[in-house]
Amino acid sequence: MGSPGLAVDGNRSPQRASRFCTKTSQEDDPYWYVDLGYSVTVDHVTIVNRQDFLIEKITPFDVHVGDRTDVTKNPMCGGHHRFCLTDTEHVVHCRGMRGRYVGIRLPGKKRTLSLCEVEVYAATNIAWGKPTVQSDVAYNGVASRATDGCRDPDWNSACCTSTPCQSNPWLRVDLGTEVSVKWVVIINRQGKTRRRLNRFELYIGNEERVDRNQRCGDVIYIPTNKNKIATNCNGIRGRYVGIRLPGNSRTLSICEVEVYEGTVTRKRTSEVRSTEGQDCEEHQAGDTWLSDDGEKNCICEMNQTVCYEVICGESGEDKPFLGKDGLWTCPEPAAEEEESGTVTGKRTSEVRGTEGQDCGEHQAGDTWLSDDGEKNCICEMNQTVCYEVICGESGEDKPFLGKDGLWTCPEPAAEEEESD
């Protein structure tokens, strides 16, 4: 059997799998996990699959992230994931999930788990330790608690902020410089008071007054069975991230605000683990600096120094540059071309057919393949919507499984230039 350490040895080769890849015996619900040494916020996990007779054995698989050593009891990144036979690697986006252990599990009877490489890309919370203010303070729930790194949702842990009951209460984090924001993660309180945060607004921009900045999405709701929500802000740029509760007689109480940049800087599994035990010396929580060799960015997280290479683009094809803050950063992505008229569609009957089904372990915006493998699913407004992908004006084009494991449409053929 292949040693579990082969999945984090840095060798991505899917060939000669017996030498370079892990392998379990055939068993029920086999799993593998890596101990990162301490909790990190995971942006995505990349898995490299074998390219021999075991190529199909990995589908479907689950990815778990959390702090339990029994990794299968940790939260899942999305639902069941599937490899395309033409792909050697698959990327699973975890959207700000946090944990010390990252596990891969094959659900089902008599299955064999074999992994050639597992790479964990950790996202840096740039709000950590940053100056934070709010409209007013009540019950000693000071604004700095929102960026102190404590995610505990219990008020008695002294990790949560609070304003008095007032009109349009707000909280603002000063990131110190303008950045491109990809995700904002909000940790809500537990218990009856968690209802206070529902129907809030998120703003990003360079104005100190929160509601003068660009709003990220619409009014946001947190499902009643969750105390965390990750909101995709699609690269909105700004120095300030603000939260506002619109309306009269409202109380704003938040346990943590985390902000992640538009082009995520990534820390591979080995780099995350190699920083274990290094304290921040003269640096304070949230400080960022260039490594001594000038090749990596460093940050002080949880009183530990984490240095990481900045990788730009999906496959590292873009070159980073030194920004005004003296750190490596990624170029802005080129504007995407307008989508063609050939779209994937959700038939009315199929959307209506899922009405009333909640998203289970999924969060808002999560996408996955249906259990029968025939449809794409998405969590919208805390409801699961599964739909057939229809390509072409009359459904004449056949969809295929893309690299994200979802059905997608082929690129339309280039149209010939019209004659005079």
UniProtKB/TrEMBL annotation:
Record region (Disordered): 1-20, 334-365
SUPFAM superfamilies in UniProt: Galactose-binding domain-like
Keywords attached to this entry: Calcium, Disulfide bond, Lectin, Metal-binding
Keyword ATP-binding carried by entry: no
InterPro entries assigned: BG_Antigen-Binding_Lectin, FTP1, Galactose-bd-like_sf
Extent of the signal sequence: none
Domain Fucolectin tachylectin-4 pentraxin-1: 2-122, 123-265
Gene Ontology molecular function: fucose binding; metal ion binding
Keyword DNA-binding: no
Top-level division of the source organism's lineage: Eukaryota
Example GO biological process: regulation of cellular defense response
Basic and acidic residues bias spans: 347-364
Function recorded in the entry: Acts as a defensive agent. Recognizes blood group fucosylated oligosaccharides including A, B, H and Lewis B-type antigens. Does not recognize Lewis A antigen and has low affinity for monovalent haptens.
Family: Belongs to the fucolectin family.
Quaternary structure and interacting proteins, as annotated: Homotrimer.
Protein name as annotated: Uncharacterized protein LOC118429363
Naturally occurring in which organism (per UniProt): Branchiostoma floridae
